[in-house]
Amino acid sequence: MSRLAEQAIEDLVLANHILSCEGILEAFGHVSVRHPDNPDHFLLSRSLSPQHVQKQDIMEFDFSGNPIGSSSYRPYSERILHAKIYEARPDVHAVCHNHALALIPFSTTGLDIKSICHVGCMFFEGIPLYDDYDVSDGMLIVNEREGERIARTLGSKRALLMRGHGVVVVGENLKQTVMSSIYLATNAEIQYRAMQLGDPKYLSYEEGRAATETMFGEVPLERAWNYWKERAIRSEAGYRQERGL
Amino acid sequence: MSRLAEQAIEDLVLANHILSCEGILEAFGHVSVRHPDNPDHFLLSRSLSPQHVQKQDIMEFDFSGNPIGSSSYRPYSERILHAKIYEARPDVHAVCHNHALALIPFSTTGLDIKSICHVGCMFFEGIPLYDDYDVSDGMLIVNEREGERIARTLGSKRALLMRGHGVVVVGENLKQTVMSSIYLATNAEIQYRAMQLGDPKYLSYEEGRAATETMFGEVPLERAWNYWKERAIRSEAGYRQERGL
Amino acid sequence: MSRLAEQAIEDLVLANHILSCEGILEAFGHVSVRHPDNPDHFLLSRSLSPQHVQKQDIMEFDFSGNPIGSSSYRPYSERILHAKIYEARPDVHAVCHNHALALIPFSTTGLDIKSICHVGCMFFEGIPLYDDYDVSDGMLIVNEREGERIARTLGSKRALLMRGHGVVVVGENLKQTVMSSIYLATNAEIQYRAMQLGDPKYLSYEEGRAATETMFGEVPLERAWNYWKERAIRSEAGYRQERGL
Amino acid sequence: MSRLAEQAIEDLVLANHILSCEGILEAFGHVSVRHPDNPDHFLLSRSLSPQHVQKQDIMEFDFSGNPIGSSSYRPYSERILHAKIYEARPDVHAVCHNHALALIPFSTTGLDIKSICHVGCMFFEGIPLYDDYDVSDGMLIVNEREGERIARTLGSKRALLMRGHGVVVVGENLKQTVMSSIYLATNAEIQYRAMQLGDPKYLSYEEGRAATETMFGEVPLERAWNYWKERAIRSEAGYRQERGL
């Protein structure tokens, strides 16, 4: 395995823990990265709660969701959602699917989540809504055709709401995707309250564009990643100590 | 005691801790399982806050709420609620009665809690409301006739709201009941917000049915159980260390 | 000091920690008990955040708020509020003044907090509102005349809202006052949400009366006290360990 | 370095940790103090999440935001916001810029945050709104002219809302600024709920003035500071232990 791939796996494990610690992932949901050595493959944990994911749990998949190599692990049933987005969006290098609570009320009422605060700036181009489930699959995205519909509805955007289910967030790299996933929930919480108070003023397209350029610069991205990393490590501390790990 | 009964008690102790850790049970509320060796009996802690329940606190009861054996422990006064549901519903093998905050506003306004998100799918057949208290019992379910009314109002459903008090959640096994109890509160929180935003689209009957089949499959049920188990153990860690346990 | 007084001080220290741990008291607010050996005196900490109160911080006061004995500690400026309630209400043996967030929106809108859920039953006789501040005292209750007005507005009730400030909760004993303080905040949170959803059904007078009789029985009161006590001790655990206490 | 300056740096490090622990600062946001030995300079951390700031990270700046001395550290890009406020307001000795969630809905709807509760009394003179961004700077305050506009809009007040971004809170000393920052978020949360319930009664000018005089007295300020300090230290405890610090 290349040094790049090793680093990608380490970062992916940490992203699983960060997103769990920040309440974005819980028992369910998952986060993946495109394989740094092979853009036609991606890395994603076996079927586990993200909080429990360790290096040895990371599997490799192709764009049909087939596992590469001879792993006996059970994969996530929704891996096809990741596969079809990587296939359709060469610019995307990390995907998170989560059920953050603040998002779902919007998904069920057809109201758009819009960039309302600086940290939610990256969604200034809008977030489409998916509501075209294969009913017999119980609202899960588990077949190739539905994975392709998801990718098509996402289009060129940074996130896709799934009615009554959750969201898909994508980014050019893992740190962008982690930041976007966390701040999308913050943005939705703020927007919910603002809509109860009155008629909010959202970020203009130009404000959103300029703010995103800043937020996705190396300095803010690294500062936020290190902040969330320390929080994830701290939340582990008591536990690891207890277990003698 | 059979190995099955030992396992049931171990799991029941853990369910008490999981539901406390997730904020579903607090000082009050309780969770029980049907006895695996004798379907006419059920297992339930003595009168204790669920967070404190250990193996030796588990008692055995019949359908009149009488304790089996010569325990000197004081039982929960509301055990009759469990007894009458086990009597009326042979398909039910675990019962949780809780006061999760997000549910009670619905119970006082006569608004139905409906499956609005994927993880709350298991309530797709609806949740009846109980409001026929014996006033002199202070809104507690402590006599056989009221226990029977509760069971009758629950009917064949998976949960029953009790006006101004809380909820009863039932399942085919303990893990289903734990998952249903946790996600019912999530569903209510999401529905509350969605109703503030507009006119939400709920799961269709068919969506709910298919999603429930998936959620109650072994893989999601085990994944979620293990996730909540680790969280409960972690929240214990600091405490057990302090006490030298 | 009598054994009764020693026990009262121990319990009062624990009540300070419980109410801090449950988010009812924070930097400000205080809780007191009537002196078990001298009904004309009461026990209250010196001016400290309740989380930090230890046995040696407990002072004794008379009904004018004068400290008994030769302590050099600085007392709370609002002790007169406690003093005048003990003077006016011989049935009251414990008083808590707190700023729990969920209560204050009601106090500023003139809306009554009413018993809406079983655990909030003890307020079935209503909660009066105080809005007659000596403006020059900055909304604090620091002089005898205002302390007397507070006691008069409280009348025979179990709590008094103070507009834009907080609440006074009283009880026949310390455990009742702790339970009532915690569940009043729960009740307000539920009522807030219920009022957003529609027109809630509150507890009837008779439901409230019967439920209060049950809740204030020894078994529920002890169960809840032990539950909160363990939580307060746990939240101390990491800290005391760090400090080698 | 003078003893005064050493103490200022120690307190500033602690203020960073307190405001992180209380949820006022997170990955972003910052807090500064005027240099006690040179009123034309101020102290502010290098570009770091406030939770991670230690003594050696504190830098010194002039009113143009230029670092003093030969540090190779990267400063916060928004330091000019602090600089221009210190320049315009000789009475101000500490500045906090934060994104506390409860504030931002107000900033986007043009609704005034007003003193509604006793602990939020210090804002009785009102909080102006800034909405005059240099769009190309992505809503950040990074050039001198915009820093001057911020200072001008703040005027003589204790806080300034920035539309869709956050707030600036100022005070005569660091402890005032920390208390004001924490209680402004509390006040906004209470006001949000009160506005959902009805038409709230705010503090009168005279109530606000008198209450502020009390709250900013040495006793309440020290009590609250010590309370938050202990909480910050506790939240560090598990972590420092794990790391052997």
Automatic annotation (TrEMBL), chains A, B, C, D:
Organism: Alicyclobacillus fastidiosus
InterPro entries (UniProt xref): Aldolase_class_II_sugar_metab, Aldolase_II/adducin_N, Aldolase_II/adducin_N_sf
Residue span, Class II aldolase/adducin N-terminal domain: 10-192
SMART domains in alphabetical order: Aldolase_II
Source species taxonomy: Bacteria, Bacillati, Bacillota, Bacilli, Bacillales
UniProtKB keywords: Lyase, Metal-binding
Domain of life of the source: Bacteria
Name of protein: Class II aldolase/adducin family protein
